[in-house]
């Protein structure tokens, strides 16, 4: 029995226990939470020829090491890598769940795209494409420019060059017709005319306006007149980083009611061919926007005009990072605890002179043993 006990002590050391504990924390944060999240996502109706499935991606704001907005090197490597990985992983999970016909990017694809020169813009945009790889079964992708892509907020003005650079590099036009749906882009960040975003309305077709900034809350008369002229059936937008729903009449094109779409309710249904005009603001898919919750929008448009919408919420990365920090603090305390207890016992039970000598010896021993930790500190 004694021999078995000795063997167990040799087999399981404190370092091995701590390593197992840390591996368990990583497994929980990087696999179990994501598996549980995908299982909780609602199941939308089975796709058919009479429906169009959308995956809505708002404000990924892909970071770049070129930007001055990140911490100094080498911490910027960690922050950019972690944010990119979170967006890319969530995107692939959302693709797997929705199997969309069309992927719609609702602006702010890049965090600093508007202030980049052409070389930096194209290289960061290529990084964006590599992170959010679209599979072959997706029929179309639609990219709407945001203020971080072409300007339009504060002193960062929209210019024709930025607009042309965005659309040409992504091979985009401002309109797309697919099955019974017309997709029309409308920019609210500038006062340029939209000569190439006009599609003649056809009875029975559903007309979806796409914008980075919410449209029904705009005070510009030009925006309201454009919404009315386009005979919009429904609107999807981003920019606010939260999940909102605005309602207006189609004649007014200005919001008269507003609600936050709570995380607790999973699926909403709207009629797009009725007298009311609905706008959905899709939340950000990146935790770097400072929001505790992030996710991807998913919608099914039926030929009857019904639109079913949900948010595929992702695990909170902030919670995961706090768990990592707490686990690291716990490991440090466990490693330093024997020496701390020895010092306390020395001061409580021994003469003062001996304790001073003994404490110096212990401190020197701790320095040698945890030299790497002191360096980091």
From TrEMBL:
Instruction: Tell me any Pfam family this protein matches.
Output: Metallophos
Q: Which residues form the Calcineurin-like phosphoesterase domain?
A: 97-242
Q: Does the keyword Membrane apply?
A: yes
The GO cellular component terms are: endoplasmic reticulum; membrane
Q: Name one GO biological process term.
A: GPI anchor biosynthetic process
Keywords on this record? Membrane, Transmembrane, Transmembrane helix
Q: Where are the transmembrane segments?
A: 321-344
What topology does it adopt in the membrane? Multi-pass membrane protein
> Which GO molecular function, any one, fits this protein according to its record?
hydrolase activity
Where can this protein be found? Answer: Membrane
Domain of life from the UniProt record: Eukaryota
Q: How is this protein named in the record?
A: Calcineurin-like phosphoesterase domain-containing protein
Q: Which organism is it from?
A: Scylla paramamosain
């Amino acid at each position: 029995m004694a021999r078995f006990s000795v063997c167990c002590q040799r087999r399981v050391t404190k370092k091995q226990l701590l390593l197992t504990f840390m591996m368990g924390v990583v497994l929980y944060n990087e696999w179990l939470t994501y598996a549980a999240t995908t299982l909780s996502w609602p199941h939308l109706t089975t796709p058919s020829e009479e429906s169009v499935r959308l995956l809505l991606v708002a404000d990924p704001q892909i970071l770049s090491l070129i930007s001055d907005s990140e911490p100094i090197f080498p911490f910027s490597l960690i922050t950019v890598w972690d944010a990119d990985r979170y967006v890319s992983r969530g995107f692939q999970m959302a693709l797997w769940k929705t199997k969309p016909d069309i992927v719609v990017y609702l602006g702010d694809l890049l965090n600093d795209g508007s202030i980049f020169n052409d070389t930096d813009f194209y290289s960061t945009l290529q990084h964006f494409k590599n992170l959010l790889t679209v599979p072959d079964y997706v029929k179309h992708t639609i990219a709407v420019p945001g203020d971080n892509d072409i300007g339009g907020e504060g002193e960062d003005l929209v210019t024709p060059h930025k607009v042309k650079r965005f659309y040409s590099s992504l091979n985009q036009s401002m309109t797309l017709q697919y099955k019974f749906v017309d997709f029309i882009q409308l920019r609210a960040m500038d006062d340029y005319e939209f000569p190439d975003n006009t599609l003649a309305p056809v009875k029975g077709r559903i007309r979806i306006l796409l914008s980075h900034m919410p449209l029904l809350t705009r005070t510009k008369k030009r925006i309201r007149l454009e919404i009315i002229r386009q005979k919009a059936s429904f609107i999807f937008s981003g920019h606010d980083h939260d999940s909102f729903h605005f309602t207006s009449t189609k004649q007014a094109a200005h919001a008269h009611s507003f609600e936050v779409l709570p995380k607790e309710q999973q699926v909403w249904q709207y009629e797009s061919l009725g007298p009311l005009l609905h706008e959905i603001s899709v939340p950000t898919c990146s935790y770097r926007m400072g929001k505790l919750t992030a996710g991807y929008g998913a919608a099914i448009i039926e030929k009857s005009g019904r639109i079913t919408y949900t948010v595929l919420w992702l695990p909170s990365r902030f919670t995961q990072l706090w768990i990592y920090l707490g686990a690291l603090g716990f490991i440090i305390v466990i490693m330093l605890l024997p020496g701390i207890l020895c010092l306390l016992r020395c001061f409580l039970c021994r003469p003062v002179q001996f304790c001073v000598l003994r404490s110096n010896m212990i401190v020197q021993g701790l320095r040698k043993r945890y030299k790497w930790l002191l360096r980091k500190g």
